[in-house]
Design goal:
The chain has helices spanning about 30-40, 60-70, 85-95, 115-125, 145-160, 175-180, 195-200, 225-245, 255-290; strands at about 15-20, 45-50, 70-75, 100, 130-135, 175, 205-210. It is of the alpha/beta class.
Length: about 290
């Protein structure tokens, strides 16, 4: 798919940024980019791929795609840092109000992005809240061993973190950029997004999504590694969630000279009212003593 260069889109007008971390995914890159692009045609969007120090033909494939697809931006880690770090790099570069995230292996289906976005906006648009619409894979196309490992990890998260989302490991999601930037960053944090979002006051909406078998390449995770690392990560997240401050709602009380003057008058009035009430109580107490 070759497209002519589009007009420059100012950062402030980008509606959604789609982030895709990849490491040695040659052969999966162009088909997925073209799918994302087709799904978002007519929208103001950007696609940000982060190459996590690939050693295959991924860099060349990304360069070829960038020449054809104007909405594509490519970042590269010189040293391998992991999936969460790649997502974080893309997030810090993103300019959209909304953030979409997909795995780079082609198993997530980009056609599900609009449904996730619609569910998020329908839920949060009523209250002005922020949140995340997270995919729930209806029929996972993975090996029996991988499914078993995922069930074990899900049981651990549910038992120790009270994570009620049925598919926290699903890679496809849409969330508000402002909320995503508030979440603590650590290695493997992408596996705990529902718990982290809720802890920071966001809403989590589950949406049924499709899932495809991997057609090219191999998974970067080994089953035993996933279980061992998963347990240690859960312990760290428990500590993190307990240590995070609960500050409640934050409201702006002063902005500009007029607003500040109004706030000062309001505080002065409140203080005078308290002083008057205190004086009245004193006088009343004296009268009782007499």
């Amino acid at each position: 798919m070759t497209r002519t260069k589009a007009a420059f889109i100012p950062p402030s007008t980008i509606e959604i940024s789609v982030l895709v971390p990849v490491m040695n995914e040659a052969g999966n890159i162009r088909p997925l980019i073209e799918e994302i692009s087709a799904v978002l045609t007519g929208r103001r969007f950007e696609i940000i791929y982060v190459d996590d120090a690939s050693t295959d033909d991924s860099p060349a494939e990304l360069a070829s795609c960038a020449a054809d697809i104007p909405e594509l931006r490519v970042l590269r880690h010189q040293t391998r840092a992991g999936q969460s770090a790649a997502i974080r790099s893309a997030l810090l570069a993103a300019r959209g109000e909304l953030i979409g995230v997909l795995d780079g292996d082609g198993q997530n289906v980009p056609a599900d992005l609009p449904a996730l976005e619609a569910a998020l906006l329908a839920e949060t648009g009523k209250t002005g809240a922020t949140g995340m619409a997270a995919g729930i894979r209806a029929r996972r196309q993975d090996s029996a061993m991988r499914l078993l490992a995922s069930r074990g990890a899900r049981w651990i998260r549910r038992s120790l973190l009270a994570d009620t989302h049925p598919d926290s490991g699903c890679g496809i999601k849409v969330l508000h950029r402002s909320l995503f930037l508030q979440l603590p960053f650590f290695n493997h944090m992408h596996r705990f997004m529902p718990s982290l979002v809720r802890r920071h006051g966001g809403v989590v909406i589950g949406v049924a999504v499709a899932h495809r078998p991997r057609l090219r390449g191999t998974s970067k995770y080994r089953i035993l590694d996933r279980l061992v690392v998963g347990i240690s990560d859960v312990i760290g997240v428990i500590w993190l969630l307990r240590r995070a401050p609960r500050q409640g709602e934050v409201t702006e009380v002063m902005a500009g000279k007029k607003t500040a003057q109004k706030a000062v008058r309001k505080v002065a009035k409140k203080t005078a009212k308290k002083a008057s009430k205190k004086a009245s109580n004193k006088a009343s107490n004296k009268g009782v003593g007499a």
